[in-house]
Amino acid sequence: MEQLRIHPFYRTIPVIICSTSVSDDDRQKCYLAGANAFVTKPHQFADLIELVRCLLTVWI
After folding, report:
1. What is the pLDDT of residues 31-45, one digit of tens each?
2. What pTM was computed for the model?
3. Which member of 1, 22, 42, 48 has the lowest number of beta carbons within 10 Å of its beta carbon?
């Protein structure tokens, strides 16, 4: 991600971290590295599909 933020062509691309982690430290590290959002993946597939739909609505 840090490489994306260095390159001018990719610098403006939104980066959304989708992780199984619920750690505040992991979330903070991602934001410090340049992530635009950090979400924890749900356990159920149907919930994951809904999460992706929501992310697309917000970021696209």
Report:
1. 999 999 999 999 999
2. 0.78
3. 22
